[in-house]
Structure formats: structure tokens, C-alpha cells
Protein 1
Amino acid sequence: MIISKKLLLFSLIICISISISYFFIFINQENFNFSAVYAEEEEDKEPPIISDIKILDTTSSSKTIIWETDEEADSLVNYALKKDYGIIRDALLKKEHTIVLDNLLPKQMYYFRIISSDKQGNQSISNDYNFITQETIEDKIQEGEGEGEGEGEGKGEQSELIKNTLEMLEKISNEESLSLIESKIQNIAKGVVTPLTISGDFAKVEVGIDYAIITWKTDKEANSIVALASEKDYNLNIDDPYMWKEGEPNEMVLKHSIKITNLKPATTYHYKILSKSKLGLEAESDDSVFRTKSILPEIYNINIAKIEEKSATITWVTNVPCSAILEYTDLNTNETKLEGNSILMTTHSIKLSNLKLDTYYSVVIKVENEHKEETESDPLTFVTTKDEFPPVISKINTESTLYPGTENKTQTIVGWETDELSICQFFYQQGLTLTDEDKSFLAPEEDFTRKHVQVVTAFLPSSVYKFWIVCEDKSGNKIKSDYFTVLTPAQEKSIIDLIIGNFEGTFGWLKKINF
């Protein structure tokens, strides 16, 4: 029993020792964490950098100060009539700051400086700045008083009258009455104030392909309107010959600039500028015109399509319809010749003929649009060689008709073209499946030509035929076309055939009855 008590006491001592050890480990760990957090918070020791300080919204009783900081910080402004600054503060942390200083005195110089602190308490203070508040309307009125006799005396009377009028207006709260007073003031102002004028009377115009920028000046602040019409829509026989207006009707400025977009290239437009002041004074210019620029021709996809012994074909495209001229030079003799097409088009192909075999040539493409604006390509160089290219077959077409009469015969006319002088032969076969045993053909052409026609009378009505063409140029280069299909027309039925067929269709059931 004694041993058991000793053993129990020994176990209790071990448990207490282990618990104490864990307690100290926990305390040390917590201290480590607190230290880490504290170190992290203490890591930023640099104050925020204040920049881009601006003073906005100047009035007789308020100012707005804005600035930026390179990190989030609070917003504080010291300000006063003297350099012993007062304070206004916004505790919200941010990078873009705005502080409004209100209840200021008019016509006074205020001093201020900016202070911003980040979340770690690092504080930055700006240099000293100052501003002057505006004077009030009453101050401006007072300036006209006490200027002596004559003109000064008149100004004093006017100032007193204005002052009394403003006091009376402040007592009016009815909206309808205020509207009536506003209208009356505008009518009086029109008779007193000098007219609104447009500087120089004519606007300056900058034009592009599809836009125009019109600028002008007025001697008083006014809005900006431009009335426009294209040459074909401009009509002097009506009260308003302009088709539409563009501008800024509510923005009052001295310098006006209006950009008109979505105009047509190479088009003449009539325009008139209009401006109206806050008091309703209007000014307008005389009618003027401008013309938008045309789209300059551009040359793309130049290709020397075919070089032969004594000829070469050059193809290209333009972005707008143009006429074209090829200026080509024999580089052996420096002799220059021209070849062209006066038709306006966008896809061009011109063949140079009567060239010399095995000779280098330089060619320049020159194009001109309908407005006589020109563009030319860089020089191209090629050499004439023996023709090793087969002719190109194109524009294949067919037309089939029935022979008149009772015979089941058709006539099919087949036409096509080649890009050079060639002799061709026509092959055909009935049905859709091709076999060498069943193919038929017509006799080869006798003369070299570029336009080819064959007449086929062997086709049966209401039948499908496949056909193809083989052509050979003067140099012996051959080419076989793709396979084409033609369906011949059906034999037309006479009136009697139609009646009998209709009768059989109606009473054909009689054939099934056994009498």
C-alpha cells in the first residue's frame, strides 16, 4: 500500500512537470507571434508622399483642395488667414484626397498646407500654399459707387438700383413670377447689350475624307451650332435651305469648335454657323461651302499573270474605280511605250503585246480616279521567255433548244474563251458516269482564236450529258478543262397529247376492270 502511494505521488509530480513545460512553450509561442505581428506593423516607417495638389471651385466663400498620396492616408488641411493654421480633417484612408474649405471670407488671402498620415502614423506635410477668394456680387456693385461725378455718378446710381433690385428679387418665391421677370430681363438686355458678333464673320474649316472641323470665335460667350446641307440638297427656294444641324446648344464659350462626321468623300457641303448667348442674342454667318477630300486610289495584289515569248499580262486591283495606264520600258534600248484602259474599274488586267523574246522589261502601273487623283506603283521587272504555260479556259456557257418539228432532236450551243490564241476540241458523254469507251467528240477547231463556239446536235431531249474541253496554244501547251454537266430540254407535247394524257389520268381506273 505504501508503494502504491509513492507511485501515485511520483506520477502526479511528472504530470505537473509536463503541464508546466507546455505552459512555457505556449507562452513563448504567443510571444513570438506577437513579436512577428508587431514587426510586420512596424515595417512601414516611410510617410506618404503628397503630390498633384490642386485648388478648384473658386468662389467668394469656399475652396476645394485636392491632392494625391502614393499610399492610403488620411486627409488634413491646415488653413487660416494667417500662417497660424486652422484644421479640417477627413480620417478616411485613401490615395486621392478632396477637402472643401467653406464659410470663407470673400476677397481674402488664405494660407494652407496639407498633412496626410498613413495607417502606421507616418506623417507627411506639404509646403505652404495660398489662394484668394472671389469677391461677391455686392462687392462688385459697391465698386461702382463713389467714383465722382459724370460717368462715375451714373455708375453709382446703377449700382444702387442693382442692389435694390437684388433685394427685391430675393423676396420673390413664386416660380411663375420669376419666369416672367427672367423674360423681361432678357428683352431689356437685348436693347441694351451690344449685339453678338462672330469674329471675322467666316469660320475656319479643316476637312478630311469623311469629316470637317469648323472653328470660330464670338465676342461674348455663346453656344455653337452649324447648319449643313450637301450641294444636291441645298435649296434656296425654301426658308431653311439646310438639312441638319450639329453642335453644342448648351455650352457657352468664346472659342467654338464643332466636328461633323459621317460625311461623304469628295462632296461639297453648304454650311452656316450659328451662335446664341445666354441672353438670347443671336449671330450667324453667311452661307459658305467646303468640300471633303476624296479617297485616294491605292493599288493592291499586283501580279504578272502570264509571260509569253512576245507578251505579258499584268493584273491588279484598286480600292476605288480607276482608269489605268501601263508604262513599260525595254531595258536594252530604254524605249518606253504606254498601254492602258480608260474605263473606271477596280479589277484590272492589261496585256502587253509585241514584246521581244528574251528581253528584260520594266513596267509601272499608273491609275487615276474620277477626281483626277493619281497613284502609281513601284517599278516591276520581268523577262520574256518561251511560252511554257497552257491557255486558260474561262467563261464556259451552254444553251440548249429543241429542233422544231416532230423529231426528237436538240441543238446545244457551247461557248468559252481562252486567254491566248488556241485551238480547242469538244468532248462529251451521255450520263453521269464517265468511261473511255462511251466518250464522243467533235472535230478540232481549224483556226487559233480566243473566243470559241461549238454547236452540238447529237444530244437527245431530256437527257444528261457530261462534257469537257481540251485546248492547245501555238507553243504546243495543252490544257484540259474541268467536267461540266448539261441537261437537254424535254420534247413538248401537242394539244392532243395533253388531252389524251389528261383523259387517261382521269379514267385510267377503267383499265383495271374486267368486263
Protein 2
Amino acid sequence: MKNIYKFLILTLVASGTMFYSCETIELEKLANPIALTEADPDLLLNRIQNDFNGSMAEFNFEGSTTGRILVMGTRNYFARYGSGTVSTSWNNLYADMLPDIKAIELAHSADNDLSYHLGMAKAMQATVMMNLVDYLGDIVFSEANNPGEFPSPSLDDDAAVYTAARALLDEAAAYMSGASAGTATDLYYDGDADKWIKFINTMKMRADLTTGNYSGVINATNVISSTADDLEYKFGTQLIGPNTRHPDYNSDYTSSGTSGYESNWLMSLMVGQYGDANDFYGEPQSDPRRRFYFYRQNWVTPNNYALYSAGGDPIIYDGAENGETLQCSIQTVPTHLEFTPDEPTWCSIQLGYWGRSHGNDEGTPPDGFLKTASGVYPSAGSFDGAPDVFEYTGTFPNYDEQFVALGAGGVGAGVEPIMLASFADFYRAEAYLATSDAVNAAVYLEAAITKSIAKVQSFGALDGAANSTEMASAMDPARIATFIAETMAAFDAAPMTSALDGFGWPVEKDKMDILGEQLAVAQYGAGNDMFNFIRRTGHPRTLHRSLEGSPGLFPRSVLYPASEVSANPSVDQKTDLSTQVFWDQGVTNPAN
């Protein structure tokens, strides 16, 4: 999910055809692309599942760009989060999911038990509805898909829609209780009703967190607690007829190199100052997930530093400017970022990691085989086995064999994470912290990090050509234990709150800053929860500031899809991004 790619899966699993859309192009499903001559419940359910994944992929992408997990490639918030922001999800819900679910309901009877179909479908419907409210506020619901009586359906109050979605989750759980999949193809849980019920309960937990019902989060039961219960969409390795690979793999592992850009903020946060040499310099352990997330193609980024060795201790090497491949390397630091923590990383970061920062809207130079690509998690690309400290042998190193290539790594057999066990632990950690229970917050934060690392590392097996020595080092239990222990020590030592300096940065990270940073790391490949977290808590305050000194108002909600506004006189378009969703208390993050 690079900053120029998001995707929409429109077709049935039987055909598997996938369509992708560019960030700057608005694709809206103006007509149903699948004209089913018969309302076959199995085929309808297949389409609902694919529409659900397309919607969640869009929410993940947009949450990632607001949360600096991915790059926002536009300098102005209003220009970026316009009428195309959640148009895929809107159209998926109203054009496909709702009528398809109605058709399944009509086909359901004592002689034709479709309880499993309806349990799945209503759980997915409720999830998309809640997320649309999170992004838009008021949406169409009670008058939707009834053109005879309501040709111009009105918007419902967003809190009422949340309540209706919660009731749908209860209904979905009732359908799932004791249900058998029968003839249904379950793309997520392979016919396991108990796992669907856990997902439903976890969505209730998420809704409780969003609306401030912290006791509901803390006391939630039978939720996703093991990676075996993670809800995710699985991709394949087929290139043509159809292409079933992860969209990030499709964009990054090509004959012309990598297309998008990884987030400088996230990479720098995970790498630390010196990567594997952090111990030598007395710095905290680097994040063990970074080699699984990011695949470097270069050993030094222009105007930043790398490390090499001539048989002894690490030596710092300063990379030269290169305006052809990295234009900002020959530019001066934006005035509003001078003397701030962003000054060293606003353009490039250390150790050959090559991405972009929040708000960078420059064109694409010839850097396809230089910039960092997505790794083996979650897109099933390649594991990064390049050393952080290169041995100098008369010439400086290059990555003669570490370039992206078609068919490399895990060949795209990755996943779209939707709800993971680590996310549920983060929900509890935040709820405990919000109620000033730092002890239990620490327990669940540690559990969340531990589960996230274990899941990410399991993807290493997808890359059979990976550097086995570096893979073993990245998965070393002692290094992982040290990283977790250091992170938790920093959390325990951090204050509950801390002040801001004259530039708007925290004088020291508080507990919610650290929790928010770790949530962002665990959300890589997903990202949906970050948009809510930022608006809900105003953290983490360490996020990269925009390269634009005045990027406009950070979105409290986004614009309605243009197609709906133009076709429905009952929907007035917003004039700005200031409209708060019902649960939003207006907490601001100084990074925005």
C-alpha cells in the first residue's frame, strides 16, 4: 500500500480479477460490474467478501497515510482527503453489499439454512458501516437501497448508525452460533463459526474503545487473542489469468523497480540511529520487525549516513548529495523544521533506507532500484538480508544482488491484515492507560508487541532465498527479548503526561506517545486504527510534521463521495475537513 496505490477488488472469487487505482485518480463504481442472473447465495457471499476486503484495504490505506505509516504524497490535507477518499467503500456497501445481503435474507428459510452466510455478511456489513462513520460522520442507512420510497435517501445521525451497526454485530453472532458453512466459501476463516464470533466480539471491543466505554474494552471476552484467529485476506502467487498477488508486491517487484515510497518516520523509528550497531553506540536495540517490513536496495541515501568497517569498529560514512535521484538532498531544510527532531530526517534517513516524509509531493525520479521496497511482511516480498555495517574491501559496497525482481521473495502470497490479535491487546492497553492504570496497560502493551513480532517473523519462511545469517540474527530470541524489555522499560519510566517545547514537540515522550508509536509499528500493512487513535488521543506527538509549513486542517472527517453528492440532493458536500464524528472530542495532535 504505497502512497500512490490502493486497490478495489470487484469481482467474484471465481474469476479473481483485481483492479487497482492510483491515489490521484478517483474510481467510483457507477454501475454494478457483475450482473448475476440468479441470486445464488454462495456467489453473492463471495462478492460480499471481496467487497469487504476492498473496503478494508481502503480504510487501511487512508489510516496509514494520516498516521505516517505510509507517505501522504500531497502537501495540503483538503486536497488529499477529498471526495474520492472512501468512495470505494461507500460504493461497495451501497451498490453491492446491502442488496446482496438482502437477496441472501430472502433466500434464507428453514429448508435453505443460510445462517452462516448471513452471519458473515452482517459482520462485514457492520464493520464497513462503522468505519464509514469513522471517516465521514453521518451516512445513509435507514433510507438506503429503497429507491421506490426514498429516491434521495437522507443521511442518518452517525451515532445512530453506530448503534445500528452494533445491533447488526449482535445479529451476526446469533446467526453464527452453531452454524455450519454448508456450501459457503469462507475466504477468511475457512468455515469456522467460532472464529467469526471472536471477530464480532473484537469489533464490539473496538467500538467501545472508540466511544470511550473503557470498561467494555477491559472486560471484553471471547475476542481474538491468538494469531491463529487473525482476520486477514490471503493473496496468491499467480501473475496472470488472473493476478492474485498482493498489490504492494505488484507495485514494488517489477522489471522497472519499485514504484512507491516507504515512510521515513516509521523506518527511522524502527531502525534507530545505527541499526545493528546500536549496541556499539549505546543506543536501544533496533526493532526486529524492520528487516521483514522494508527491503533496502541501496547502502546509503543521499545526504545521510551509512556505516562501514575496515576490519574494526563501525565508521560513519556521509552520503553525497544527488539531486537527480533525491531532489530534496540539495535543498535546504524547511524553515518550520529547523532545530526540531525532524531536521535530520525530513529528506532522507540513515543506513540506506530510502523513502519519503509526510507531505512530499515531488515527482518520481529514476530511483526505482534505489529506494526501499515493501518486504516479506505483509506483501510477501523479500527479506532484507543486507548488513547494516559493510566491510570495506577497497571499494564501497553495493547491492549487486539485492534488487527487487519479478518473482522474488514470497512472490506476493501475502495478506491484508484486518483484525489481528495484537490489535486487540493494543485496545486493552489504551483503555487501561485512559483509566490511569499504567500497570495493566504495560501488561497488554507487552503482549501486543510480542504477538506482532511473532506474526511478522513467521513470514520470513516465505522467502526461501533470504540471507540465512541475517534472518537468524533478526529472529534471535535474545535480541527480541532485549528490544521488548527496553521498550517496556521506556514505557514504565515515561510520565503519564508531558509538556510540549516551543516547537510543539514533547519535552519527553509520555506513555501514550510510546503506546502510539508501537501501535503504528504493529499497524504496518494495515493502518486503519491509526486515524481513530490520533483523533481520539492526540498521540503520538512524535509524528513527522508535514513538509508543508501550512498544510491546512488535519481531517476530523473526510468529504463525501462525489458520485453520491451529485446524484443525491439530500447529501450536501462538506466545505472543509472540520466536521467531527460523534465520538471525536476534538483532541488535537501537535504534529498535525
Protein 3
Amino acid sequence: MGYLVLSRKYRPQCFEDVVRQTHVTRTLGNAIASGRLAHAILFSGPRGTGKTTIARILAKCVNCASGPTATPCNTCQSCREITSGHAADVFEIDGASNNKVEHVRELRENAAYMPAHSMRKIYIIDEVHMLSDAAFNALLKILEEPPAHVMFMFATTEPNKIPITILSRCQRHDLRRIDINAIIAHMADLCRREGIDISEEGLTLIAREADGSIRDALSLLDQIICGAAGAVSTETVMDILGGIDRQILFDVSAAVFTGQTGKIIDIIDGLYVRGQSMTRCFSEILEHFRNLLLVKMNADPGSLADVPDHELKLMRDQVAGIPLSYLSLILDMLFKEEKHIKPAINPKLALEIAFIRVMQTKPVLSIDELIEKIDRLQQGIVDSVAPPGSSAAHAASAPGETASNLEETPATYGNDCPPETDEQAWQKLIDMLSREQPTLAVCLKEGIISRTQNHQIQVDITANQFNIDNINRPNNHARILQLCGDVFGGDVRVSIHTQVQKTGGNAGPGKDSKALKKEAMTHPLVQSAVKLFNGKIVDVKLL
């Protein structure tokens, strides 16, 4: 017998051998054991994931001499004939070349005869979506009232092209793309059986190129084994497949994060000299930054695009100190450059320009960092003009942060000052806070003081969501609690209640759009941001 390619030599012969389709094989095994196997079954899914293989195994299960059983013996006449592809009672039909109505009519006529020596006559139709409308109509009648000895198994990569009248009469099983780690493990096992020495990086490149298809992976592995003499190196795999070394992708992202524009240009030039496709390189780089973003977001590893386990740790380490907003900005810029690179006459130049634009964009500040920077700037201005020993200088050296809750907060600091009204004490708190955190002081400015039972003080603050979020930040919690203890005394409990301000449309209740725009432009936070960045207000949009 001639040489058998790996995909045929190691084709699964029982449900346990099928890679990563347990949700299908388990269901079929239970159906056989309970005697509830449907007369028409549809297997759909991507190419090379095991549709026809599972159909053959199921045919063995049904017609095995010891069956029906979920574990065929693979030694009886029926099992051996199905394995060799010469079974008298199992017909494998290519739907693409037998798609006419006369082919289905012939099938219907033959189906009327009893099987030769098996329990059932089984028809496996591959790529069934290729049948013509007339052929589907001819098939419909026998699916409605099939003979007791006949069973149909359909396989397709495009179930959406099958008429609903056919789908409704089939039990459907959807096969999934096989994850990269499962493909790598399966190929590694076959290589051990064959005595082939190949690196894990090489298997990773093959598995990624296979795009979820176990058959494609084994076909590529066959090709690479033929092209290598002895041990298969990662360089050999890259030369045959034309792929990019994964380390290059990490080098690109590292250069972007460290601002090394020259290194990126050198990497692109090296890829070009080795004959790599610039558009393909860009696609892999874009996918790499997408994966880095998802890793930073702590996304489910299953949502990553073919990332093996050993690369996942490298990605986590690389993005550990990179802001999420910066990763999102890089991915957005690269995605927008795609429309310029693919149709470019000189894609290498287009790729270089794309990264030059990325490198000229600095990481953006988050809103928390922006507020903190504005507060530090204003505090520095206050400290520079405040005389030694003044209240401003004292405020700058306030006690450290403490973690607590704003609700029902007991005061923890004594107050030796003369008695003053609640409104005066609250204003004093705002004045003290305005010297060190002016943006937070603005958020508290509209607070309304009221006394509750047992000499409790309640502060009601109605503000927009931004101001409420600022109040509820942990560091701000701690500072407000400290100042409450200073100004209200140790025998008073303070409760602060926040409520989001309701708006009545674009203009808001009682305010026209001009008044709202003026209010936004004169907001202390806006004015501080303009002063900090030496900018100007271009426009104000009402939300």
C-alpha cells in the first residue's frame, strides 16, 4: 500500500479519538444508548473539523455487529468496510457533483431496497448545500417518510444555504473551530508516533496557519516534513509557510511602547528583504495589538485570536505597565490605516508611515490622571503664594489617607474651635479642600446641610454623574472624612447622600442652551484644564 498522508493515517475511528468535538460525540453516544437516534442528521461547521469523520463513526456505531453501540468494535465486516470506504450499505455521496434532481431520484429508488448485510442503509451526503432546489424538493419526500432501514447524514460548511424545509426534518449538530492549543497537542502526539523532531514554535506556526482546521494542520505538517531533512526547525516552517516569527510581533509592540521608531523601521525592512507580504505582516501585527488589548482587559482567553498558552504569559508581562487607553488608541490608529496599506502601490512605505503616525501619538491621560494633575498644579500655585504658617500651607500637609465609607460617617477628630453653624462649618470644609483639591471642592459646593435626629448631620448633594464619581473615588472619600471630623467635632455623625442630577432634554430644566454652554465654559475644571495645557475652547456640545 502506498504512503498515507497523516490526515488519513490517523483519522479517528471512534468518538473518543475525535479532537475537541465532545459536545457532538457525547450527544450522539447518548442517543444511541437510549435508542433515540434521529433518521436524518446534519453536521455543520468549518472545514476540516470532523464532520464527515463523525458521520463515518456514527455509521459504524449503527451497523456494527455488536451494535447499535457508541463504541464500535472496528473488527467486524461492517466496521472494516466503512473504514476502508467500500461498505456495501454505506454510501458516501459528493453533493457538489451529484446535485441534480435525477441523482436524488436514483437515490430514492435504491433506498427502497433492504441493506445487504447490515442493520441500516446509510447515505452520507457531503456539501449537501450544493444540491439544486429541484434536488432538495425530491429529497424532501423521503425525509418526511423514510423507510425504517434508511438513515441520512448530511455534512455542510454553509447550513444557511439549505432550505428550511430540509433543516426542520434534520437533527442538527454544529461543530466548532478547533482551538490552537488542541491542534498543537494533537500534532505533537502524531509527531512522537512518527519519530519526527519539531519545535513547539514550529507547531504553533502550523496550527495558526490551519485556522481551526485539524485537517489543514495535518496537511501542512505533511508538507513541512517532506521539505525538511531530519529535525524540523522553526526557520524551516517559516520558510515553507511564509509566516512571521511570533517574536517579531512582540519586538514590534515593545518598540512602540518604548518609542523606538528606528527599530520598527528596521523590523519592517527585514521582513521586506525576506520577501514577506507587507499586507499580511500588517494583518498579523494588527491582530497582535488586538490580543494585547484583550489581555489588558482581562478578557476570556477563548476570545483571543489563536494565542497559545506560552504566548499568553508573554502578553501579560508586556502590557503590565501600559495604560488601557493607550493600547486602545494604538489599535484604533492601526485599524484606520488598514484602508491605506492594502491597496497601496508601495505597501512597505505605507506600513512605515502608519507606524510613524502611531509613534508620534503620545499616551492619553485618563480622566483620573487629568484631575489629579490639575489639582497638583493648582495646589502648587497656592503653596507658592501662601506665607509660611498660613492655613494654605497647613492644608498641604494634611493627615494621610484613610479608607472608609461616606454613609453614616462618625467624626474622628476633635474640634476646639468656637461653635459655628452647620452651614459655616460646611463652607469652612470647602475652603480647606479648595486649597488642595479644587476640583473636589467644586463637586461639594452645592451640598445642602440639614440636621436629623440625635444631632446627626446630613449633606445632600445633587450633581452630574461626573461630579458624583469624583466624590466617590476612594482617595477623595478618605479626605472628605478627615475634614468632616475637623470641622464638625467628635460628637457628630455625618451622612453624605449623592443623587444624579436629572435633565429635562438638551437645554435642561429652566436653562436655555446658551446658559448651559456658558456654565460649562466657566466651570473651574474646564478653566483649569485650559490653563494647564495652554489651550482654548473650540466648541461646547450639549448632550
